[in-house]
Amino acid sequence: MSQIHESLALVLGGGGAAGNAWEIGIIAGLAEAGLDLTQAAELVIGTSAGATAAAQVRSGIPPADLLASVLSGAGRPAGHGQERPPSLPMATVFERMRAIGAAATSAAELCRAMGAFGLESDSILEPGAEQRRAIVAARLPRPDWPDRPMIVTALDAQTGELAAFDRDSGADLADAVTASTALPGLVPTVAINGRRYIDGGVRSTDNADLAAGYANVVVLSPLGGRTQTAPDSSGQFEGLRRLPGMDLASQVEGLREQGSRVEVITPDAGSRAAMGTNQMDPATRIPAARAGFAQGQQEATRVKSLLVS
Questions:
Q1: Could you tell me how far CA 307 lies from the centroid of its own chain?
Q2: Positive or negative CA dihedral for 104, 108, 111, 115?
Q3: pTM above the 0.90 mark?
């Protein structure tokens, strides 16, 4: 068994614009009920939309103010009125990703194939790289890495290997978050230190296994395992294949076997309705944040019990 630190790791999963706003709502709701995870978490791990949330959580801005920013409509995509960057049809992209998942015989093969898809798509998407980075940077409350530990996940597009960026990795924060949110086929791969990277959510929507060694782990998972359901179920993320070890249930089981106490918060019925079936639609942000806030208040007792057990 690995050494366990008597501390808390907060895991923020991916899930598009709706997922990011829901996570901020949950955190604000928990804080309203007396549990401020922005202060309690020794480590914050962010993947995809959760990477942006991680930077927000680690910014030093109080949870209530983070929520107020979402509800005011702040943090919308930059460049309003400018020409949109080149893109591929979203339905086509998700169809291709599902096909890649169906053909893969291992998690490593799936990650490499998704990286290859990202690199292949760069021939169309690369002209929008600078604009894409500006959009992501505009969402970050602070330009620099926080002093307190934070990990942002991405995948090496050439090898499919996980990259866990932090303040000591030599990557600019905006570059790391842009890489973590670089969904293959939708936005260009991101160059960092001579390598190209794609969305960390390709490996796992949560990457909760990176919290190994922490006594207490709280996972906010906007997708909550729904990616393992049938391809024709609602939501564009549904039906994306998760091979063993990449799914949240396997990662949580592994953490518990190593001695961690883990609580997972997934969207309740009200939050799922607010998030809708297109979680990448910015119009979902305000309703998802409001629903998350209400759910966070309700979840506070359960999460507090983890920390005092």
A1: 23
A2: negative
A3: yes
Residues ≥6 apart with Cβ < 8 Å to 100: 110, 113, 114, 117
Percent of the chain with pLDDT over 90: 76
Q: pLDDT band at 89, cuts 50/70/90? A: confident
> What separation, in Å, do the N-terminal and C-terminal C-alpha atoms of the chain show?
20
Cα-flanking dihedrals φ and ψ of residue 72, to 5°? -85, -5
Task: For residue 221, give Cα distances in angstroms to 74, 112, 254, 300.
Answer: 23, 24, 17, 16
Question: What is the per-residue pLDDT for 1?
Answer: 37
Q: What are phi and psi of 195, to 5 degrees?
A: -115, 160
Q: What is the pLDDT of residues 138-168, one digit of tens each?
A: 999 999 999 999 999 999 999 999 999 999 9
The residues pairing with 192 across neighbouring beta strands, listed in sequence order, are 195
Q: How far apart are CA 306 and CA 264, in angstroms?
A: 11
Q: Compute the residue count for the chain.
A: 309
DSSP 99-151: HHHHH-SSHHHHHHHHHHHHHHHHHHHGGGHHHHHHHHHHH-S-SS--SS-EE
Q: 4 in the Ramachandran plot: left (φ > 0), alpha (ψ -120 to 50) or beta?
A: beta
